[in-house]
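Good morning,

Both structures are done.
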Amino acid sequence: MKTIITYGTFDMFHIGHLNLLETLASMGGRVIVGVSTDEFNEKKGKKVLIPYEQRARIVKNIKFVDEVIPEFSWEQKRDDVVKYGVDIFAIGEDWKGEFDFLSNLCEVKYLPRTRDISTTELKKSLKNFLSIPQEDLIRAFEVIELLRRDLE
């Protein structure tokens, strides 16, 4: 049985995250997920909406995941690969080449991302939605209700 590891923030858990974890599980092994801590995300300049404890708990409860570990730094990956006896380090293809330095310890795989979905895009959409004045939203819902009534 192979040991597979990946890392991520997993903020606003979405279908792309689930697809990644399912793909890792399909490789036929034990799946370990390093979830970035709030402090590490801050160092990376990332703002998270969901606290680490909740993100880790969500990921831990996905049936494709065997173990969740905290990700504190970029440097810990090499140590984790050795510590957990990792056979495959897998991550999204947007990181292509960034983790090749691990290839002397394990197989490094860059996996295709799910099209048309990303946490960054979800956050942008949410920000745009929240910037719509409340009065405009109320008017839009009133118009929708009037149209619905007309169709009845």
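Second structure follows.
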Amino acid sequence: MIDPELLAKAGATLKKYDKGEVLFHEGSHAIFYYQVASGEIKMNNYNDEGKEFIQGIFAKDKSFGEPPLFSDFKYPANAEAITASEVWLLPKEKFLKLLEEHPTIHHKFTSTLASRLYYKAIMVSEISTQEPEHRILRILDYFKKQEAQGNTAPKSYKVTLTRQQLADLTGLRVETVIRGIKKLEQKGELLIKNRKVYR
């Protein structure tokens, strides 16, 4: 998102997180801009029964948790390291100053946040009304668009998400995701090769 050299120049620090370590908790105040240098971070919530719902997964060069930096509300979710990770942390005031000094980056953030809002709106609709197979395809197509760098050919995107992560992203049970993936393969929507799923 933001060039690491520019982040460092603006006063960002690079911090290491172990797998499972929490970067911030739901309900806490936003004091940093976060950008992944390596590894993977997820934003999640837990319901009263302890079931996890993943709001998003962020890999190298992706930022997360920005909305509270622009307004006076607390984080609506937790951020947790999926793997050992390194993350850039830039204090809120310095981040806002950086955006003021670089309108192009500011515009990029506006576009990114609009895309995420669209994704959230789609997923709310999907979870409340659509069948499991449809939900699975929708989330896979979203990640394919984000990660495939323009390659939209059928079965060209290797899914890196686990079945558990797919379940947590779609509000489904793992068993339902596994059955759904098998049905989608039978319909020709997915390819399973060496236990890996391709869309």
